[in-house]
């Protein structure tokens, strides 16, 4: 018997409809959001198992936000909802996440002596780098957008 997927038949709707498209997974933004989600989840698990359990809320929130943006970009919600400027929201999320991860990683590594806190701190430093790279990329998109917007706006200001 021949497999229906190999015969070129369309895939049945179900669990596969929840998966993001391969093009998005291969894009830089998709890979960054996936890395942010995975790192945030690992850090969350490490903080749950550590003495520094008071820090677990930040990775949980960042995990949920990164997961939401991952599926929002994958399902092209950013093109459907024009009222929200998505790169600015993503930029602010990345900046705050990088700062928070850096601060709690320093606190976890220096204050707590158990292995899970140290591991959470090390993964937190890695997440800081990933989030910093993401906000650098997003910042370049914002600057390009603002330059395009400022070239159109002086004519409108001169007539007013």
TrEMBL record:
Positions of transmembrane segments: 32-50, 56-74, 86-108, 120-139
User: InterPro entries from the entry?
Assistant: Marvel, MARVEL-CKLF_proteins
Bilayer topology term? Multi-pass membrane protein
- Localized where? Membrane
What the entry lists under Pfam families is as follows: MARVEL
Residue ranges of the MARVEL domain? 24-143
Q: Which domain of life is it from?
A: Eukaryota
Entry keywords, A to Z? Membrane, Transmembrane, Transmembrane helix
Q: Which GO terms describe its cellular component?
A: membrane
| Name of the protein in question | CKLF3 protein
Q: What is the lineage of its organism?
A: Eukaryota, Metazoa, Chordata, Craniata, Vertebrata
Instruction: Please name the gene that encodes this protein.
Output: Cmtm3
